[in-house]
Amino acid sequence: MNGITKVGEEFYGDGSSTKPFLYLETLHFEAMLEWVEWYILGAEEFSQLKELRVIKCPKLVGGLPKQMPSWVRLEIRECSALTASLPRTSVANKLVLNGCNGVDLGWQGVSSLVKLEISNMPSLKELTPELHMLTNLQKLIIRNCPSLVSFPRILNTSLQELCIENCPSLLSFAVGVLPITLNSINIWECPKLVFSVSEEMECCNSSLELLSLHSCGTLKSLPLGFFPKLRSLDIENCEILSIPNGHGLNISTSLEFVRISACNSKVSCLQEALHAPNLKTFWVSNCKMLKFLPEGMHSHLPSLESLSIWNCPEIESFPEGGLPSNFRRLQIGGCKKLVDRRREWGLQRFPSLTKFTFGGGKYEEEDDDVLESFLEEALLPPTLTSLSIENLQNLKSINYQSFQHLTCLKELEIFNCPQFQSLPEEGLLASLSRLYIYECPLLKPRCERDRGDEWHKIAHIPFIQIDYEVI
């Protein structure tokens, strides 16, 4: 199809029919690299067409059929020379515009749209205010629009999901310009963006359940009380982060998941009490300046099951009162100041703790003897069923006596320990049923089935996986 430059009258047959393609519902053009002109009869030849896809036709100049009253899905991708208006319809469901700057973004004739995706539009500076006319719109995706500066008010739509990615010129975004039906916001790679929430917007976000912000410049304030149904909060690489108490206590009864990563604020963004009685998972990673965890975790986060603190070298201790009594999974890595005070953690008091992950960090290495200290001093509860050892660059071996009190241990994982080469002479615990070894080049050949020097120490384990291969 590469040699075709024109789709002309012959495309419609011998002319015997006044309405060709009377029953055609799907039409798809792709990778016609020399195609320039599409001759349109204008005789309602596409009156029953429901789906039109034009993909990778970079030289196509002519317009699209204007009379497509039945189209449900229209997809135009990588057609940079195309100039066209959107054909009117009352049944449009999905529209995808990717790399086609010449397509007029007029929404008057497609008010039935449910899903709209706009991407790779380098000259797009703004979305027309008429966007609010798409009253049935439920999902809006905007990607790779480097000139986009502003975002319109779309309060009248039925929008449920909003995704904005890689729009580096986008300056501001106020939650108050969004409809109350919205339950998911994902904004990634918008480094100039100021995400603002004000008290006037308190009643505008009653449906929001998922909020994900990655590389979004400045996040001035995020009072969780403004999002009463928020279940998941994911924030990464936002230069400043403040989670204030707002009106009294910062209570969020719906919040179940929080992940904060690479938010290198000079102030403690998490020190204030976070009251989330149903929070199950709390992960903090790569926050070099963070010094404190939320106050009162033991009482304000009673449902917490999983806590992960990774590459936060300035955190020195858990908050006063310790950790919630029922948490099950703990991951600690790259937190030297916190690990130096490991004897104060009191993990032996948590019979519900079943999975522990310990590892070296991104900014500094742990001392060789820290792992042995955890084990030999019985700092871990005997109820532990899963132990993961990660990123310990100088660890060479582990001692059998260190494991003896972990009589319930069923799963052991050793990941990225390049100097690790020998397992205990006595072998591993009889209770182990699963062993995982990844990126341990000295240990791998020694664990070869029936031939490796370490094989007799692990032969009793039913399931063994080394570098994602079951042996």
UniProtKB/TrEMBL annotation:
Keywords: Leucine-rich repeat, Plant defense. Residues 365-440 form the R13L1/DRL21-like LRR repeat region domain. The keyword Transcription regulation does not apply. It comes from the Eukaryota. Signal peptide: none annotated. GO terms for biological process: defense response. Transmembrane segments: none annotated. Pfam families: LRR_R13L1-DRL21, LRR_RPS2. Residues 44-167 form the Disease resistance protein At4g27190-like leucine-rich repeats domain. This is Uncharacterized protein. It comes from Camellia sinensis.
